[in-house]
Design goal:
- By secondary structure, the chain is an alpha/beta fold.
- 42% of the residues lie in helices and 15% in strands.
- It contains 10 helices and 8 strands.
- β7, α10 and β8 form a beta-alpha-beta unit.
- α3 crosses α4.
- The model has no long low-confidence stretch (mean pLDDT 97).
Length: 205
């Protein structure tokens, strides 16, 4: 059985990284981290936040977005990702139970993702890390990987994209509440299961 894991918000906490960059790019930011993430988890984009709360023009929004994409995966900000305390034990248990583990991400730079999973000590638990490099979808990544799929496989993630990917692959979907979206938003995508975080996975298998 295969288990496909999204990374950001699923295996580690990226909230500090994203909020720090937002603050750096928006010097007049008045939103606290809690306020910012309440908006983000309700599926409010950075662009909409800038328009609504800071009266950014469309040109200003474009400049922000370009800067964001250039900086969000730089070492300075990647260092702010924090591995969830339950991640290693969960992956280790699943690995020892014989599940084939894969990581799937839309990150832009494969080398930086591979370095990060190695630094955090979770590279040893996965068969392969699939990285889109912002060129394709997660669905296409998995389909092009030559991994043999079955209906019992799982796609685990914290966003609607992850749920839609699993459904498109015709495998089971598990949404986690540890990341970028709240329960109300995730429910709209009709995942097979919603759990607080991946530590609850083993009891479901």
């Amino acid at each position: 059985m295969n288990i496909f894991f999204d990374i950001d918000g699923t295996l580690w906490d990226s909230q500090d990284r994203l909020y720090s960059l937002f603050c750096d790019l928006v010097p007049n930011n008045t939103l606290s981290k809690v306020e910012y993430w309440s908006l983000k988890r309700a599926k409010t984009t950075n662009e909409d936040i800038l328009r609504k709360y800071f009266s950014y023009s469309e040109d200003d929004v474009k400049i922000f977005t370009a800067s964001w994409m250039n900086l969000i995966e730089t070492p300075e900000y990647l260092r702010k990702d924090i591995l969830f305390p339950f991640t290693i034990n969960t992956l280790k248990d699943l690995n020892q139970c014989g599940y084939n583990i894969y990581y799937v991400t839309l990150r832009q730079f494969a080398d930086r993702v591979l370095a990060e999973i190695s630094e955090k000590g979770i590279d040893i638990y996965c068969e392969k890390c699939l990285v889109s490099e912002a060129k394709t979808s997660k669905e296409t990544l998995v389909k092009n990987s030559s991994i043999s799929l079955s209906e019992s496989d799982l796609f685990v993630g914290d966003t609607g994209i992850d749920i839609m990917t699993g459904k498109a692959l015709k495998i089971r979907t598990v949404a986690v509440l540890s990341g970028f979206r709240n329960k109300e938003i995730l429910t709209e995508y009709s995942p097979d299961i919603i759990i607080n975080n991946i530590s609850e996975l083993k009891s479901l298998l």
